[in-house]
Amino acid sequence: MNKLNFKHNQKNITDFYTAKDENSVVFKTHKTEYVSLLTDDEAIESEDDVVILKENVKLSVEDDENTQPSLKKHILKVKEDENVKIYDEALYEEKKALLLKDLQQKAASFKPSFEEEIEYKSNSKHVPEYRIHKFPDSEDKVTIDYFPKNSQTIYHFISHLHSDHHVGFSKKWLTENPHAVLVLGEENYLPFFYKFNISNFKSKVKALEEDYELMASRILVVRKNEPLKLYFNKSNSHIVITTLNANHCIGACLLLIKYYNEAGELKETILHTGDFRYNSKMMLPRLKDVYFDKIYLDTTYKSPVWNFTPKVELLNKVSLFLQQKLKPAIVENWFYKGNRIQRTLDTFVKNITFDKKSLKTLIILGSYTIGKEFLASGLSQKMNDCPIIVDKEGFRSVYNLPTNGNFVKSTDITKDLIDNFKNNDTVLYLGSIGNPKEIKQKLKLFNVEKIFGKMITICISLSGWNFYKWKNFFQDMEKVEELPVVNSSNCHRILEEFNDNSFIKRKYDLEEIFNSDLIFDDGFKLDMENLPKWIITQDKLNRIVYWKLSYSDHSSYKELSECCTELNYGKIIPTVNTHSMDLLEYHMRLWRLCKKSD
Ligand SMILES: [Zn+2]
Fold first, then answer.
1. Ion ligand 1: protein residues whose beta carbon lies under 5 Å
2. Residue 336 alpha carbon to ligand 1 centre in Å
3. How much is the pTM?
4. Which residue segment(s) compose the domain that 400 sits in?
5. What's phi and psi for 515, nearest 5 deg?
6. Per-residue pLDDT tens digits for 191-220
């Protein structure tokens, strides 16, 4: 494709699509189009998520005649008549209570005591530099969001429980690295035990294993607003670590680490963002007075091409669009137009009278194991506090979910959909999105329709990469030589142009930047028969609408710019997209030139 011709032919987004059809820019088949809705900006959960499909209960009768009954003893004892494979709620609650008791008793400081010298074996695999942080003028170091086969440090921090932040971890790893200690934000403690089924916490029928106390003693927590002091082995050098909400998925935290040497002198302060969505209002008050020697930065969106609407603003737009535009357009198109499809649907769903007023709407928010909880709770608030159904089996349900969202932890989603539709016209479901057939089968929507009549299902795929397919079109934005040369006199103007997209629009001769938020424009007319297919598609047979929305729990380019011009720091170490170091260095230099504190 000749990009220059392409540029001359189109001035705005509609032209772009017309031109796209004519020029056939990399098309995906219909099938892969649906599969791509699963795309998320988190790495696909692959190696983790302990799924217990079947459990063979082997009974071990414990002789406790001489033992005083206690809560602990009760839980460690496996019940004799246990041939059941159904979920034992009471057993789970007892296990949870015991772990919570341990959690409450955790101390605010920790000093490792090892009887033998720790033997650090060398690693065959190269560990990325940003995963192990070495403190100045010492041998003290910590590992962050990574579990190498042979651990080289005592402390292993986990910023949050997305699988790309605990690569290498398993129950086996804990046994193979007996000196290793894990440090988590307090909120992640129980979910961590659950996700990895540590000491059988996730098990439906088994009691906690006898080793749970040992395991619990190796998992430390940083409480909210309370620092944790960690000493290094046989020395007085230590770190003081505090956490801050990372505005990412549930439980995600920023790690603020201060390192003190043997003499108790502060030698280094670092900030590890894990994955984060920078929010100046929320974070700056806690960060503005600190000088960070190093910031380990989540540089997921490394180019100004990725600027999406801030969360709060987006919530308003999405809820208005859903209620005032999308739903009425679907109703009009599907139920009032006596076209061929309508007749097909009438024969498909028999004996049902359609009442517009009580029309049920299911909104599915696409997300893997954890993430998008705050978007879900925000949307629920905007839509009459409608219920948000989440899968109880998933480890998301072990978290304290946002209190301003009406969350329902479900073991039978179809049943809970039916129950909740009795008092609500709209129900949200937070979970993974498959193709239309899979959705209908998984949620057994036919059973819901048998009771309430025809319903609308809207699947929202949430990702900042939702317009990633235009990457090739914007490839010049990733070449440093194609970007303006920055200096101290033009830096502010250039950053402003990057942040408001004017540079990109000018460079590519566009009137709009490609972003699914375009449909929020007042002038956008929603025509269900001619949908902008890269944003909205419909499966007429299954009556499911798919909407790709540019949303992310990571910082957009603009938010990264804000972070790196507002904070006071010596060096930034990118943790994502490290293969594009020249591009990252270009932007880091630009941010540094625009820094407010310099
Ligand atoms: Zn993440």
1. 162, 275
2. 43
3. 0.84
4. 311-467+514-550
5. -155, 140
6. 999 999 999 999 988 999 988 999 999 999
